[in-house]
Amino acid sequence: MVQSDLRTYLPPSTELPDSDDIPVDNEDQNLIPNVLLFLLNFIWAKRQDWYFGIDMGIYHTTGVHPRVPVVPDGFLSLNVERRKDGQSRRSYVTWEENDIVPTLALEIVSWTPGGEYTEKLETYRKLGVLYYLIYNPNHWQRDGHQPFELYKLIDNTYQLQLGEPFWMPEVNLAIGRYQGAAGGIQQELLGWFDAQGKRYLTPEEKAERLAVRLRELGEDPDLL
């Protein structure tokens, strides 16, 4: 079946499950992508041409079957509608997104290995995802890799990139690790950085720094 004929039989998003229904086995697989999305909502508050999905099925025509999705822990697509036709997406269906594939895919390695360095890497390569980030803070020694590995698709091959935070000119952001707080708990997180390597702060962090500065100047921020 040629590609043009295949598209005639591709199912609409309303007929496709939104994920693979496999539960995550650690809370960071939900927490860290949500922190990245939360930050993007402020960094790109005036933009409507991007979408960040979390634990959502990506349906495509480069795998075993169009009805079999790949489900990254997080992914970023550019030059797409912030809300598809003004509504929330149930899944990300490439043939309903003008064949735009994610620019960045994120996998967080858990206690149970999930083929992040093998099968999923090959899936994202065939799909054409430009950047593939494998975050492995707890099991990197077990797996014989580094905790933070970012690959870029060059000449149809993923090549490991050096430097952190790593600048992605196509995204106009860098991504890297930092020590921060989520829900009042200090831990390592992933964040967005500018071209100079300065991390974008959350509104709460900005407010805390402003309060510290005001106290240094003899002002009580609680009275303002």
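The above is record 1. Record 2 follows with the same two-line structure.
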Amino acid sequence: MHESPPRRRYRSIFISDVHLGTRGCRSDFLVDFLKRVECERLYLVGDIVDGWRLRKSWYWDSDHDEVIRLVLRMARHDTEVVYIPGNHDELFRDWLGLEVAGVRLVREAVHEAADGRRFLVIHGDEFDGVIRYAKVLAHLGDWAYDWALVLNRWFNAARRRFGYPYWSLSQWLKRQVKEAVKAIDRFETALATEAKRRGMDGVICGHIHHAEMRDVHGVRYMNDGDWVESCTALVEHADGRFELVDWVQENRLSFARTPRRAPAPATAA
């Protein structure tokens, strides 16, 4: 009988940009991750549920349900769960200050690491000029991004047939666009500058679907990535050391052999 690998124990875990409610969401990978980890604190750093997409059409499969179930189970079993809504799940910003089923909703948080360093935890859309000043443009960008993810699904379906592991075509395409690279750099600089202004040692954010961990202007910038393209999480070890976990990269062979389960039928909203 095949034994399950032991659970990984972390002090803190940060995940964002899951986009439950979209076909591009890799909820199957996230379910696998959540089943194999334990932590004292779980930060949900925005865009966990995609309200923009669900308002247009309804899509929800069994893995989406399982993500919610696992998070709530963690909240019931001594994990402090903090939810910081983003722009795609901004409807939950009306609930800030409340605790729902053990999940505390806040606009932002200050995380103190085991080594005493203090980090601003924020989704980051407030520092995205497109989101902040031109929401119509943001929605148009969201439409183009959705098409890139459709192409990504077809591409990876073909790769699975030939026994190749998951690889994000959409993320690769984004990195080839010079203006996208410049926008990411501006975003990182803006977040790091804000953290420095507040006297923090660093910032932990999401929003741009680009996992990163580097020093910017003397502060530590850390982005936990997403569960649409990169399938990454930021974790803190018991000694205060941070690490980006790439769940697909760590499980390339098993994910190549295991096809994604067929989703439940979608119904129009």
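Residues 135-161 form the longest helix (27 residues).
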